[in-house]
Model the fold of this input.
Amino acid sequence: MDRKLASVFWTLIVTLAVFVILIYVGGNMLGIERLMTGENPLMRFVFVIVGLLIAFLIYYSTRENKIWEVGTREVVWMAIGAALYAVFSWLFNGTVFVVPSLSQVALRPAIAIPMFFGYAFGPVVGFFTGAVGNMFGDALTGFGLYPQWSIGNGLVGFIAGMALLFKDKKKSMDTVLWIGGVLVLLAALVYYINRTLPNMMFFDVANNIFGDAPITAFAGISIIVGFLLVLIVRFAFGKNIDIATAVTWGMLGNILGIGFAAISDIWVNGYSPAAAVVGEFLPAAGPNLIFAAILVPLLVVAYAAVQKQSGR
Amino acid sequence: MLVTWRYRDRKSLIQWFDPRAWIIFYGCFLASTLFFWDIRFLTPLLIIAMIVLITSGVSWHEMRRAFLFIFGFIFIFTLFTFLTGRGGEEVYSQEHLIRRLSAPFSILGWKPTLDVTIERAFFAISQLARVFSIAIMTVLIPYSLNPALYGITFRGLGLPDKMAYAVDLTMRFIPTFGRDFQLTMDAQRARGYELDKITGGLIEQVRKFGPIIVPVTIHAIIGSEDIIDAMDLRAFGIGPRTWLQRLTYQRRDRVLIIFGGLLLAASLIVLFMGYGGFWIPEALFRIIGY
Done:
């Protein structure tokens, strides 16, 4: 590992260690309630570092690959991707549909941007697009920053870009489909078991409090609907390998990236694992998959036409 | 054509400082605000944000649209939180009723009822203070930070040249793409497309975002070739980058950074001492009769 890389790696490790020690000593040993897991603001930063470490380790283990090179083109694409994601997030945040969820998780067609940029221009561009774009989008909306969610969005683009690591796209795509399918089934199972959990419904039947309804059945199974759409795209566009690969890897990026952010809220906000999956992950990742299956192919086709025309 | 933020040189508190010092202070302020739900700790932060706003030199005419949008959004969100209690369950588990308001009608046997509770009311107030503080500080940045200094600012904050330039470009592109979005929307509307009246099933509705998202994205990618060529012609990325402007820390900048650091440290100490969580004055319960 060269000096620069080593310094990045050790900075991340040391910062993570400091946070973990603070939380362990303050929360567990000294019994300070606000430092214990659950509604713990410091945990946000722990998960930022964990997310960065995941990306770093993937990079380090495949550092010889050309997809990690960052030249002029990548710098400009990073900026364009992040700016587009920020603008679309700002315009579509919460203004399109509203599905019940635990935090401010809005249904966003903009999610197609990090997936597409990750797939078309590589994982570094994808990560920057998702993470920085989400950060600027939140800032534009005036809602402040949720750093672990920005990293989760970054991972969406990062994982979508990992498709370029594999020479045999078809084989990698099928493996990704199997992994995605298992994760989707697991999430759907958690929903099925916990669909009546009281802490994910803010409707007090006994007191008839006006307001929140439980997560709708469609939001609950939307991840299955999205996965079926991805399957249709995979096989209907079997001959256009780019469309199928972009959608399939985008799906995995969405499941793992949003999953990372939602699961972090078990420690950050003190949600139960079921509430994090059913209340946050499903209402965000499910509709995202539907957007991915429909909008990403449109972008891939349009970009292919541009490439053909410009010869670049 | 690049569209820029509404920056201009003003005699303001923000612009009195080095942009790097201001970004560091902003980061400390943001982290401190995110630590708290306690209105006693959020109030001083809101006061700081208000002082920054008042001394920003940005006229109401300039920021009217942005502020009306953001504050309208925050107000509606807070109202929604108050009506439903959503979000509050993260910080309180028990509710004390002040008054129950029931509608004089019912819909299919369901009678709309609103429970006004001490927790909901105080949570809404705390949330308003928290989000307002963050929004004020964030919204003022593009009005006050010189676009010519974006790159050198982020470089000065320790980002590598390429990352600093990418963040610089991102900030510059946002207003441009906002304009492109509006132009595309208008062009599509002229063809009979209406985003506000999208109908059909979910899949059909999703597909209808295509005529907006695809042209804006592809137009941006095509436009990027000119920028890439211009950067390549200037040998971008070949060696360490030099910047036209130079930033130098003055004493006041160091004072601001120290103040930001102290604010963050004080917030962390308060947090470690177990304070800062959602708080309701005990007296309020007695007044209400609990």
Summary: Chain A touches chain B through 70 residues (CB under 8 Å). DSSP finds ten helices and no strands in chain A. Residues 70-310 of chain A form one domain.
